[in-house]
Specification:
The protein is mostly helical. The chain has one domain. Helix content is about 95%, strand content about 0%. It is elongated, with a radius of gyration of 13 Å. The N and C termini lie far apart (about 40 Å).
Length: about 35
Amino acid sequence: AAVRGSGKLVLLDKLLTRLRERGNRVLIFSQMVR
């Protein structure tokens, strides 16, 4: 289970890195929408 979970975590990590590259703009936008 841990191995399968780590595989998903790797994918999430890649997605998070991409989100972090755009992240600041997205977070600011989401906060303004709220």
